[in-house]
Amino acid sequence: MIYKRGCDGKGLNGTCSKCGERGACGVYWYKFMWQGRLVRESTKQSNDKVARKMESAHRTKLALGEVGIREKETAPTLKHFLEKEFLPFVDVKHAAVPNTCRYYHTGCDMLIDYKDLTGLRVDQITDQHAGQFASRKSALVEVISAAEVQIWPSLEVMIRNAPSGDT
Known about the structure:
By secondary structure, the protein is mainly alpha-helical.
């Protein structure tokens, strides 16, 4: 199927909001399904007959195996991405601000410690995984907070009874 996107005239002074000019969006595109995948490309042509020939040529090349559908590069696992790509970037980008580096390293360490996420590829992580991680961390924070409630009074007593260095 070929189609023309066309200018919309919604820009300033009646120009196209997509291309910025009047009538410059007049190129044909083609799209079709090939082995369950969508193929969509611009012909960069304003003539519909040439555009149809280009679509037909692309289908023929696919059928003959001369042209393949470009495969996406597989996404890295979360652990690999954090350790090999993200944290080195943080170390370079925020080298002058050690607290920022420490903040990102702490957050990444928490993610790496959560084994349900580290083995997943980055493009497989959903909001459900994020919700599970957040609920686990909030439960852990509640346990730590309960422990702090018991520890703080004894710390205050120790601080109050500690010998001061002024005497």
